[in-house]
């Protein structure tokens, strides 16, 4: 997320499609940036991955290290990204395979489609009103980051 793009990337590029999906009635799970940014892939993780000897592991480690270098150059004031990067999409995918990695909460979620300043921002109604809107998805509110990290490293290190 940057000032020019305050929403989550997939919602930001097509908030109208995201709104249609949220209103579709299909069972959904969302893992937002507030949760995915808690899962960090560090330089030490990249070294461990490279040392695993997997055919794909060295490539993945080099890509991750390059991305960490890029983040440090382009966002030097962001201590959160110093020496590591978030694993947004891998966590979202892992949450499908291993739902217990994430703590889920039912919520009514909408996405901002009208304003350029807040385009793609997901808004979850968590106020606990007496008659809240009916939940249209389950949102991730916490993650077992270490369990995910181990799962990720184990899976990537065995790819051939």
From TrEMBL:
Keywords: Glycosidase, Hydrolase. This is Inosine-uridine preferring nucleoside hydrolase. PANTHER family: INOSINE-URIDINE PREFERRING NUCLEOSIDE HYDROLASE (PTHR12304), URIDINE NUCLEOSIDASE (PTHR12304:SF4). One of its GO terms (biological process) is purine nucleoside catabolic process. Residues 7-149 form the Inosine/uridine-preferring nucleoside hydrolase domain. One of its GO terms (molecular function) is purine nucleosidase activity. Signal peptide: none annotated. It holds the Pfam family IU_nuc_hydro. InterPro entries: Inosine/uridine_hydrolase_dom, IUNH, Ribo_hydro-like. Its EC number is 3.2.2.1. It is an enzyme of class 3 (hydrolase). GO terms for cellular component: cytosol.
């Amino acid at each position: 997320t940057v000032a020019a793009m305050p929403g989550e990337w997939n919602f930001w590029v097509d908030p109208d499609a995201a709104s249609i999906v949220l209103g579709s009635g299909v069972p959904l799970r969302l893992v937002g940036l507030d949760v995915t940014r808690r899962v960090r892939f560090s330089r030490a993780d990249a070294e461990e991955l490279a040392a695993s000897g997997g055919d794909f592991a060295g490539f993945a480690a080099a890509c991750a290290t390059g991305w960490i270098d890029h983040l440090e150059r382009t966002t030097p004031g962001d201590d959160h990204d110093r020496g590591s990067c978030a694993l947004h999409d891998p966590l979202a995918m892992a949450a499908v395979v291993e739902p217990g990695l994430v703590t889920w909460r039912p919520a009514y979620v909408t996405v901002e489609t009208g304003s350029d300043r807040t385009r793609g921002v997901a808004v979850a109604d968590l106020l606990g009103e007496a008659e809240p809107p009916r939940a249209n998805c389950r949102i991730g509110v916490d993650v077992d980051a270490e369990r995910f990290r181990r799962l990720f490293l184990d899976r990537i290190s065995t790819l051939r």
